[in-house]
Specification:
Family: Belongs to the PurK/PurT family.
Bound molecules: adenosine-5'-diphosphate, magnesium ion
Structural class: alpha+beta
Number of domains: 3
Pathway: Purine metabolism; IMP biosynthesis via de novo pathway; 5-amino-1-(5-phospho-D-ribosyl)imidazole-4-carboxylate from 5-amino-1-(5-phospho-D-ribosyl)imidazole (N5-CAIR route): step 1/2
Keywords: ATP-binding, Ligase, Nucleotide-binding, Purine biosynthesis
Strand content: 15-25%
Pfam family, one: ATP-grasp
Helix content: 25-40%
CATH class of the largest domain: Alpha Beta
CATH architecture of the largest domain: 2-Layer Sandwich
Shape: globular
InterPro entries: ATP-grasp, ATP-grasp_carboxylate-amine, ATP_grasp_subdomain_1, PreATP-grasp_dom_sf, PurK, PurK_C, PurT/PurK_preATP-grasp, Rudment_hybrid_motif
Number of helices: 12
């Protein structure tokens, strides 16, 4: 039995993979209507921060089987509790020492810097507001483009804890909020990247590691809108470098399960003719939006691989099954029920692989995605984006 904390779409998409592997999945869901609760039979309700609920998830008692392993679909689980469970003999994968690197961007930057992993120039801001403003002003003075990116160390997602600033006062509210118990802050150079890449890697406790091809992720307003697999026109040496960096992170941080490494592709590492390079942006220790293409475009999906990895089973192949796969996210919709779009979508894009998460519609919310695979990238991309547009309730011209 695999116990999963978190009832969103990532846990939901583990369900078909668990069914295929014959693995019993038990998911701790926030309430009985979440994306995962709709499809997972064994879905107790409770908060990720609730010790009782986590303990009951792992050891339900009665005739129910205990968990072979505890894993996650998000990083927001109290670390002390996980450490206690490990001490008591429950396998927790990824383990708490690894997971903290994905919970806190300052801890992550510090560790990656120690490991010699290429990152943007960064600094943690002091907790005293005046010192924080002074440090930010100082940092901005040294940044090449005159702009920097301030981030909350914890709790951010989909660009919500990220702000581009040109002067220290632009972060005043966050700096003040920190003193009132808000998250710590860090600042980074605003990287003049050519595009954003991601490498998905899986690692099992016995050490086996596999990466999927490097993908390009297209972000809009800090949110992933499209993923192109593999990243078009990526120099083979750079692809090799990106995959090596991801493996180095997985091994250096002792990650088990699936790890997504978000990266920036930059034209120059050092501005002295060294050529293109990658810098690591952030880490997610779980299946990730940049890997949804693997459900339909790779031999083994990230969801199946995550289950295999946390169960310490041999990892599945990661080769793509098509020349190109494009994933387009459905972000918000004017439709009340996305399924109303299926007749037209199915008729116009029979090759499109639709995945809807069963979530209520809210502006900009990730409600589902579409994968399209094929030989001609422009065509594949156009059709994936058009199919996703139908699910957003837009009318489109031609197929
Ligand atoms: N140092 C940076 N330079 C330029 N853009 C950045 C930088 N950091 C983040 N961004 C942009 O903001 C997006 C979200 O930032 P990220 O740190 O990944 O936060 P989140 O946890 O919200 O995903 C990134 O995908 C990228 O587009
Ligand atoms: Mg991110």
């Amino acid at each position: 039995m695999v116990a999963v904390v978190g009832g969103g779409q990532l846990a939901r998409m583990m369900a078909p993979a668990a069914a295929e592997l014959g693995v019993h999945l038990r998911v701790l869901v926030e309430d009985p209507t979440t994306a995962a609760a709709q499809v997972v039979v064994d879905a107790p309700v409770g908060a990720a921060s609730d010790e009782e609920a986590i303990r009951a998830l792992v050891t339900p008692g009665g005739a129910s089987p205990g968990a072979d392993v505890l894993t996650f679909e998000h990083e927001h689980v109290p670390n002390a509790l996980l450490a206690a469970l490990v001490d008591e003999g429950t396998p927790v994968r990824p383990g708490p020492a690894a997971l903290v690197q994905a919970q806190d961007k300052i801890v992550m930057r510090r560790r990656l810097t120690e490991l010699g992993i290429p990152c943007p120039r960064w600094a943690a801001l002091p907790s005293d507001p005046d010192q924080a403003r002074a440090a930010l002003t100082e940092f901005l003075r040294a940044t090449p483009g005159g702009e920097a990116v301030v981030k909350t160390a914890r709790g951010g997602y989909d660009g919500k804890g990220v702000r581009v600033v040109a002067e220290a006062t632009a972060a005043d509210d966050w700096i003040d909020a920190h003193l009132a118990g808000g998250p710590e802050l860090l600042v980074e150079d605003k990287v003049p990247f050519t595009r954003e890449l991601a490498v998905l890697v899986a690692r099992r406790p016995s050490g086996e590691v596999r990466t999927w091809p490097v993908v390009e992720s297209v972000q809009r307003d800090g949110v992933c809108a499209e993923v192109i697999a593999p990243a078009p026109g990526l120099a083979p040496e750079l692809a090799e470098q990106a995959r090596a960096v991801a493996v180095q992170v997985a091994e250096g941080l002792d990650v088990t399960g699936v790890l997504a490494v978000e990266m920036f592709e930059v034209p120059e590492r050092d501005g002295r003719g060294s050529g293109p390079a990658v810098l690591v942006n952030e880490l997610a220790m779980r299946p990730h939006n940049s890997g949804h293409w693997t459900i339909d475009g790779a031999v083994t999906s990230q969801f199946e691989q995550h289950l295999r990895a946390v169960l310490d089973l041999p990892l599945g192949g990661t080769a793509p099954t098509a020349r190109w796969t494009v994933m387009a996210n459905v972000l918000g919709s004017t439709l009340e029920r996305l399924t109303d779009a299926l007749p037209e979508l199915g008729a116009r894009f029979p090759e499109a692989r639709v995945n809807l998460y069963g979530k209520g519609v809210r502006p900009g919310r990730k409600l589902g995605h579409v994968n399209v695979s094929g030989e001609d990238l422009d065509e594949v991309r156009r059709r994936a984006v058009a199919a996703a547009a139908l699910l957003r309730g837009e009318s489109i011209e031609e197929s």
